[in-house]
Design brief:
Shape: globular
Helix content: 40-55%
Largest sheet: 2 strands, parallel
Amino acid sequence: MLLWPKARLGEIGRGEAGTLAAAIAEMPLHRYDDEVLGAAAARLALDRPVYDCVYLALAYRIGGQVVTADARLANALAATEHGGSVGLLGGFVSE
């Protein structure tokens, strides 16, 4: 969880970190089996870090798209069959 390091660095207050952590339980989150996603990610056979493959496998599973600020990831996949499943965050932000 990134809240604790942010609180330690003074980027957010410790009280705010606690409030945000408690709010996670109220979020409409859906959990997916690690083994299923891990196997799907391995089948992608991409020369990318495992977490990129897991995000992409999850996007396929839920019929979504990976939205990222990682231009290297988006550019690496743009010319592949997966290019349409990855979008840059900047493309979703209105000015």
